[in-house]
Design goal:
By secondary structure, the chain is of the alpha/beta class. The protein is 34% helix and 24% strand. The chain contains 7 helices and 10 strands. It has helices spanning 5-26, 65-76, 97-104, 118-129, 148-151, 174-184, 200-212, and strands at residues 29-30, 40-45, 48-53, 87-91, 108-113, 138-141, 161-165, 190-196, 213-221, 226-233. A 7-stranded mixed beta sheet has the order 6-5-4-7-8-10-9, with helices on both faces. It has a 3-stranded antiparallel beta sheet with strand order 1-2-3. The longest helix has 22 residues, at 5-26. The chain is globular and about 55 Å long. The structure holds S-adenosylmethionine (SAM). Residues 59-60, 63-64, 66-67, 92-95, 113-114, 117, 142-144, 165-167, 171, 173 line the site of S-adenosylmethionine.
Length: 239
């Protein structure tokens, strides 16, 4: 069906907003001006300069654009989604930028990823949060779907927020990822999830996700193929 003039104007307006915000988000990142022995990338969030050392050998070794989108959202919505003294877990934390920003905003953070990522993750987190945060973040292994009852028992964990950036792509652990979201989520837990769409597989994951969670799109950045979602467990008593 041909688009009405009104719909076209709306799309153009949204395109302009998208480009403007994306330019703002990307401007938070910078590179060192001098050649250094250890390569790092810099970011400005939550009133701090954050230096992230990237490893080059796997998905979790670089900062992905979804992480910038989520950091920007946390900073610019700090009143609405107040992180101060909140219990927060990040899954698939990679280099740790999102966890660092949440910590700088006052949260009590547990940053998690696969075992081989934890060294670099711990290094970045320590370097950027020591003496700067109310609560020193923890780094812990969480391989999706593995030993959840042992390492994150439901009786002992109560997260206010679950943060996730770019955790859905062509990997074979999508069911385990869904299980992990479900395991960590309580009735009042809010999931903030920045999702980059690349293939049809990702759309199917969103459909599966919607079976368990109420999903709300908070913002969309078509030029990056990224959407930011808020989700909460379905059929909550308080809903
Ligand atoms: C595309 S990277 C995103 C990293 C970071 N969130 C960011 O946006 O910069 C995906 C992350 O998921 C992690 N990951 C992949 N498979 C995983 C699994 N089975 N269990 C736990 N983490 C996993 C990777 O190690 C990596 O850190």
């Amino acid at each position: 069906m041909p688009q009405s003039k009104c719909e076209m104007c709306k799309e153009i307006r949204e395109g302009d907003d998208d480009r403007q915000v994306v330019a703002e988000i990307m401007a938070r990142s910078f590179l060192p001006t001098q050649i250094t022995t250890v390569s790092w990338e810099g970011f400005h969030f939550a009133g701090h300069e954050i230096r992230i050392t990237e490893a080059k050998d796997c998905y979790g070794a670089v900062v992905w654009p979804s992480a910038l989108v989520l950091c920007y959202f946390l900073e610019t919505h700090a009143k609405q989604y107040n992180m101060v003294d909140k219990n927060v877990i990040e899954i698939g934390a990679g280099t740790g930028l999102v966890s660092i920003v949440a910590s700088l905003l006052g949260a009590r953070v547990t940053a998690t990823d696969l075992p081989e990522l934890l060294g670099n993750l711990q290094y970045n987190i320590s370097r950027n949060t020591k003496m700067k945060c109310k609560h020193l973040p923890q780094v812990k292994e969480l391989s999706w779907g593995v030993a959840l009852d042992r390492d994150f028992p439901r009786s002992a964990t109560n997260f206010d927020y679950i943060l996730a950036a770019d955790v859905v792509y062509a990997h074979p652990f999508l069911e385990e990822l869904l299980l992990t979201f479900d395991h960590l989520c309580r009735e009042s837990t809010i999931i903030l999830w920045a999702m980059r769409f690349r293939l049809e597989k990702e759309n199917r994951f969103v459909d599966r996700f919607k079976e368990l969670f109420d999903l709300e799109e908070l913002s969309s950045f078509p030029s990056l193929n990224i959407k930011l979602y808020k989700a909460m467990k379905k059929n909550r008593r308080s809903a």
